[in-house]
Amino acid sequence: MPMRNAMLVLALGVTLAGCAKKQDAAAPVDAAPAATTAEQPATPASAPAATPAPAAVAFDINAIPVSTAALPAWPYVVLPAGYQFSYADDLASRTKDLARVPVWTGGQLLWVEGKVFSDAIDNVDGKTYSKFEVRKNLQQAIEALGGVRLTERSFDEATYKANEKALGDFSQEFIRMQSAYSYDSDADTYVIRRADKAIWIVFQSNNDRGALLVAEGPLPEAPAKS
Q: What pLDDT tens digit does each residue of the chain (226 aa) get?
């Protein structure tokens, strides 16, 4: 082969080899697989904590002065003129010689066992019913007997929920007093402390009719001194 042709063949081989190396260098490198993040299980939302019933504030009967005032005939409460009990002609039928009823002291729900009267209060003789008049006259009459008003409102919802079954049974038996034993409602509770017993009076009224409960039972135990 002539020298010139040999040199051309050699140069062509070097050129082709260089192109092959460039193509190899330009070949893409397989990308590394993307890292995957494992999904974390969702944390269930915590259920809202139940609202606990408020701690009862023990009622101390010793904080109430003993009354020696003369008591009217049972049920001890005299209504103002123009008003009477629904069963005025048969009050005995509205009395239970022994029953168990709740009274709200403003901080504690006490259950009283003893003689119980309950009835509705109506206007008569052309009198227009006045909630304010009946309530004010009852307050004056009860305080004249040595009574002390403990509260003007019923218990809260938490207290009701904690005693729902017992309060429901009571309301079915003493249906006229249902409104007084709904939570957060208007209801006056009085106590008359006698030397040997306690007389509890609960009054509730709407705009055209009232209701009264009188319970007579043993003196409640005083709270233990710390």
A: 444 444 333 333 434 344 444 444 444 444 444 444 445 555 545 545 555 555 668 899 999 999 999 999 999 999 999 999 999 999 999 999 999 999 999 999 999 999 999 999 999 999 999 999 999 999 999 999 999 999 999 999 999 999 999 999 999 999 999 999 999 999 999 999 999 999 999 999 999 999 999 999 999 987 777 6
Predicted model pTM: 0.76
Within 10 Å of residue 17's Cβ, how many Cβ atoms?
9
Phi, psi at residue 28, to the nearest 5°?
-70, 145
DSSP 3-state of 102: strand
Q: 146 CB contacts (<8 Å, ≥6 apart)?
A: 65, 66, 67, 68, 69, 192, 193
- Hey, how many other C-beta atoms are within 10 angstroms of the C-beta on 214? 24
The full set of domain ranges for the chain reads 61-217
Q: Which phi and psi angles does 151 have, rounded to 5°?
A: -160, 155
CA distance linking residue 27 with residue 214, whole number of Å? 102
Task: Return the DSSP state at 71.
Answer: P
